Amino acid sequence: MTTTTDVFISHSSKDKAFAWRLRADLQVYGVKVWLDEEQLGLGKLLTPEVEQAIGEAKYLGLILSSNSEKSDWVRKECGFAQAKNLPILPILIERMEIPKEFADILYADFTEADNDHAYHRAFHLVLARLGRRPDPHSDLIIYRDGLTVGWENSSWGARCHEKSAEFVHTGRYTMSAELQAFGGLAFSFRSGIDTTPYSQLQFAINGGHWGGQRLKVYVNDRRGNGVRTPIDLNALPAQEWQEVKIPWTDLDADNTIIFKVNWSDVSGEPHPAFYVNDILLVLKPSLNKNGACHP
Questions:
Q1: Which pTM does this prediction carry?
Q2: pLDDT tens, position by position, 143-173
Q3: What is the DSSP letter of 100?
Q4: Taking a C-beta distance cutoff of 8 angstroms, is the pair 216, 234 a contact?
Q5: Distances (CA, A) of 99 to 58, 68, 74, 104, 172
Q6: 103, 129, 155 — which closes off a domain?
Q7: Domain range for residue 114?
């Protein structure tokens, strides 16, 4: 039978919040997820629909908890999967003894899911099992002619234009940001980025018509806060592009997980618009298949 789904998520309805979070993060990486509350059609017979969905999946992601242990439906779904020899990926979300039938299977440990780092490590284990874990052999582009997939504009106190054609570094567009006092231009990635394969943050920046903007650059290792060491930039010159390269060690973000990259005002005064483009994480040369980085 042809598979149409990467993973069927089996879970207790009491663990719905975690299941939906995992589904949303997997979909960022293009993983096709079957989740009963989203996929079941109104008025359709539950058992045949679920059995067919499991048969068309590549994996069954089993969310293990005290709730799922008591769930008759989770047991049925596991039975369907085992009858079809479908690989099962145990996803542990609370401290408990692993059921004997799954004791010899590598499981993803989400028992500290409230900690973004712990969640991210477990999440990437799931991606690896599904064959979707990023295997970087090139630079990771955040913005070039627009934000790349998975990255979101999470700026504050700023008026931004994501596709400005006023000052262009390469391509057709740049990102412009006019900051209020202590406002910031920021890009976030919801499931986190492991900086281990990368050597530095690189971007081009332009002071626009007026220049003089005073900014600091820093990253967050948590969704809400977790600010790492900020780096102050020199006042931006007017109508001139500068290429900036900042090693992860300077940002105190080497071999860690980041969720956001920021350029924020340090002057306490409103800023005229500045422009950034070609924002990327530069791959370590030793990891590039061609032996060189390609900005």
A1: 0.67
A2: 999 998 789 999 999 999 999 999 999 999 9
A3: G
A4: no
A5: 22, 11, 13, 10, 56
A6: 129
A7: 5-129
